[in-house]
TrEMBL record:
NAD(+) binds at T195, N226. The gene is gdhA. It comes from Edaphobacter acidisoli. This is Glutamate dehydrogenase. The active site is at K111. Pfam families: ELFV_dehydrog (PF00208), ELFV_dehydrog_N (PF02812). PROSITE patterns: GLFV_DEHYDROGENASE.
Length: 421
């Protein structure tokens, strides 16, 4: 793999491009298609004026990047965070293209982001920001064009505001313009928990692959937001032992297992996981290097780099977050024979249930939660085995196998459509 400087190592776009180039070379990808898929189709930058609660006006910078529409409308979340950058949103948009192709759903890839700190903004400020962001993007969004969803810092309420703003402009209710909405507005049952549920399904499959079982399998999860908390919940329900949870303001450790339902109740009341009596307080950055069977980064990018990869003591690394591991760290973990379940496979449960939501909205008929979950479990386990089979046939690691499988599918459609004429 190409050698990267430290600065490039933690640039998500460079990390994505390094994996893309490596996989494309292995595929012997046509040079022209390579050039087409290496860049996003469209990058939109907007500056969003928002009236703040104190009477001042603030201007926020936002992005929507559409990487590919070869296999269907753009699909991907919107992130509200102070760390958002164009390179990050570019990478996230490309990962959406590959992710949707890995699980074989008819979407391309897109992603959005706004540089802001949602933790420091009121609901009113967030609503005004979201509505103006949506209005600025109105001609680029739509059920057949580009369908946003929640990501870090955004939730069901954000999606409800986007749906309403889009619908006001269209003069009719268009619920299929976003997914991850509240169920009473056309959201899918199961979407809120879907990413974490999907992570638990690929963990099950990895254990079978390695001759292990959930009972006695020790797990550490980084991040207790949507993905982390639901992953922990589903794994605990299946009999895994969650021994550690790392959050930005502190971690928790209990060798006998943390009661996830009790921790969720504590977090709801206290607004933080810290102070929970059912575990010892632990240093978050040290937690991820503690011995465990499965480590699940489910918070953010670049948490596993050349600086700490050699210290990891897990058998399986299952990426709930997007881009938690840098390419250099991949090589180190490869030498340590860590079994990696790459992000574009591991966390695809969210977008898969988003696909179900879009389908249900468009037909106006809604499935029960067991129906949604059964379909999700089937796609996640089938996709896991597709990636493993690809890795064996092509003698590459799981991450490169996932990229190759995805690039192959997107390249095929791009070529068949003649998306360069
Ligand atoms: N929400 C979804 O359906 C999907 C999310 N993802 C990815 O999963 C990751 C997490 O997303 P969500 O759970 O939706 O976001 P979220 O905002 O609900 O949760 C993120 C959590 O990580 C914590 N966190 C932030 N910095 C941290 C640090 N340095 N150490 C430990 N914890 C930290 C936050 O406090 C928060 O609890 C992101 O990479 C996102 O792109 C991927 C697929 C789908
Ligand atoms: O549900 C979706 O459409 C996208 C979720 C997302 O942003 C992701 O998978 O990274």
């Amino acid at each position: 793999m190409q050698t990267l400087t430290l600065e490039q190592e933690t640039n998500p776009w460079e990390a994505q491009a390094a994996r893309f180039d490596f996989a494309a070379k292995k595929l012997n990808l046509d040079q022209g298609i390579w050039k087409v898929l290496r860049q996003p189709t469209r990058e939109i930058i907007i500056h969003i004026p928002v009236g703040m609660d104190d009477g001042s006006i603030e201007v926020f910078t936002g992005y929507r990047v559409q990487h590919s529409a070869a296999r269907g409308p753009g699909k991907g979340g919107i992130r509200y965070s102070p760390d958002v950058s164009l390179d990050e949103v570019r990478a996230l948009a490309s990962w959406m293209t590959w992710k949707c192709a890995v699980v074989n759903i008819p979407f391309g890839g897109a992603k959005g982001g706004v540089i802001c700190d949602p933790k420091k903004m009121s609901q009113g400020e967030l609503e005004r920001l979201t509505r103006r962001y949506t209005a600025e993007l109105i001609e680029f969004l739509g059920p057949e064009k580009d369908v946003p969803a929640p990501d870090m810092g955004t939730d069901e309420q954000t999606m409800a505001w986007i749906m309403d703003t889009y619908s006001m402009h269209m003069r009719q209710t268009v619920n299929a313009v976003v997914t991850g909405k509240p169920v009473n507005l056309g959201g899918s049952r199961g979407r809120k928990e879907a990413t974490g549920r999907g992570v638990s399904v690929v963990c099950d499959e990895a254990l079978k692959q390695l001759g292990m079982s959930p009972q006695g399998t020790k797990v550490i999860v980084q991040g207790f937001g949507n993905v982390g908390s639901n992953t922990a919940k589903h794994l605990a329900e299946k009999g895994y032992t969650i021994i550690g949870i790392a959050e930005y303001d502190g971690g928790l450790f209990n060798a006998k297992g943390i009661d996830i339902a009790a921790l969720t109740a504590h977090r709801k009341e206290a607004g933080t996981i810290t102070g929970f009596r059912g575990a010892e307080a632990a240093n978050s950055s040290e937690l991820i290097t503690q011995p465990c069977d499965i480590l699940i980064p489910a918070a953010m990018e670049n948490v596993i780099t050349s600086r700490n990869a050699d210290k990891l003591r897990c058998r399986i690394l299952c990426e709930g977050a997007n881009g938690p591991t840098t390419p250099i760290a991949d090589e180190i973990l490869g030498d340590k024979r860590v079994f990696i379940i790459p992000d574009i496979l591991a966390n695809a449960g969210g977008v898969t249930t988003s696909y179900f939501e879009w389908v249900q909205d468009r037909m106006g008929y809604f499935w029960t939660e067991p129906e949604v979950n059964q379909r999700l479990d089937h796609i996640m386990s089938t996709s896991f085995h597709d990636v493993i089979a690809y890795s064996k046939t092509h003698n590459v690691n799981n991450r490169i196998a996932a990229y190759m499988l995805a690039i192959d599918r997107v390249a095929y459609t791009t070529k068949q459509r003649g998306m360069y004429a």
